[in-house]
Amino acid sequence: MTWKLTNDGVLTISGTGAMNDYSESDMPPWLIYYQGVFTVAFEDSVTSIGDFAFTYIKKLTSIIIPDGLILIGNFTFYGCNGISSITIPDSVIAIGYVAFANCTGLRSVAISNSVTLIDGAAFGGCSSLTSITIPDNVTLIWNEAFKYCTSLNTITFEGDAPSIGYDAFYDVTATAYYPEGNTTWTEDVMQDYGGTITWVPYATSVFDIISIETTDSTDNSADTNSEIESDADNDNDDGNDDTTKSGCGSSLTAIPAMLATAACCVCVKRKRNGRREK
To answer: Which end of the chain is more exposed for a tag (fewer CB within 10 A), N or C?
Structure first.
């Protein structure tokens, strides 16, 4: 994998296959320039987004995810407050643990029907998110997936009841719509999951109750005005104490410290003083 950051703030990841995974102690090399990253784009041949790849890039406003991507890893966009909308393409099968947690500016998410797993706390703490549609291929919504999504008021399930983990909707007051006559939706399934959920059946023949607006913020300038280019694999794997790694270590000391407080992602957000009325 290679990466390129242009002077208009477009970070492009190129290559074939899966990105490297990173960690709190081994951050990706481009994060030394995190204040100048506004858009992240991937070539079509990239199949997964690595763990911790874009954590805490607070000025990031646009993510261009290609068709062909299969996996969004863990902590990938944690704390990227500038993102307002996300479209998950029709090739992704799993949204990783804490993938978009604490993206407090996130207002809309379009999840494709290819997704089968929404992992633990994937959208935890996304306090501006108002509605979510769960496609019929989703079989598992893991623990705390939408915890502290305090503006979430509408949840629409398009198919059979998935397995839903504990506190998946903690501190959420919402109406959840499910297909009328679908026998997988039992009383055991229709619980509050840590929030206050009102369950309402809908007739599938007139399923147009909820729609999610998404914004196409594609930036076509990713290949111009190149400022910085690097081989991401070499930057991550060669073990040499080169200039890029040295800069990364000195510039991002605050980020691992902040993440260290988030053992369960949204636990960094303390209990609010009161519940917003819906």
So the answer is: C
Give dist(CA 240, CA 238) in Å, integer: 6
- DSSP 3-state of 77: coil
DSSP 157: E
Distances (CA, A) of 5 to 48, 222, 230, 252: 19, 8, 9, 18
Cα distance between residue 154 and residue 169, in whole Å: 12
Residues 37-94: tens digit of each pLDDT: 999 999 999 999 999 999 999 999 999 999 999 999 999 999 999 999 999 999 999 9
Cβ pair 151, 276 in contact under 8 A? yes
Give the torsion sign (CA, 174, 180, 182, 186).
positive
CA distance 81 to 157: 27
Buried b / exposed e across 162-194, counting CB within 10 Å, b at 16+? bebbebbbbbbbbbbbbbeeeeebeeebbebbb
Task: Single out the residue of 84, 79, 60, 16 nearest to residue 233, CA to CA.
Answer: 16
Residue 172, CB-side half-sphere exposure with 13 Å CA sphere: 33
Is a pLDDT exceeding 50 seen at residue 221? Answer: no
How distant, in Å, are the alpha carbons of 97, 104, 123 from that of 132?
18, 15, 11
Cβ–Cβ < 8 Å for 185, 178 = yes
Question: From CA 65, how far away is CA 85, in angstroms rounded?
Answer: 12
* Residue 254 confidence (pLDDT): 41
Contact at 8 Å (CB) between 122 and 95? yes
pTM above 0.85, yes or no: no
**Lowest-confidence segment of 25-29, 68-72, 203-207 by average pLDDT:** 203-207
Question: How do strand 2-6 and strand 226-231 relate by DSSP bridges?
Answer: antiparallel
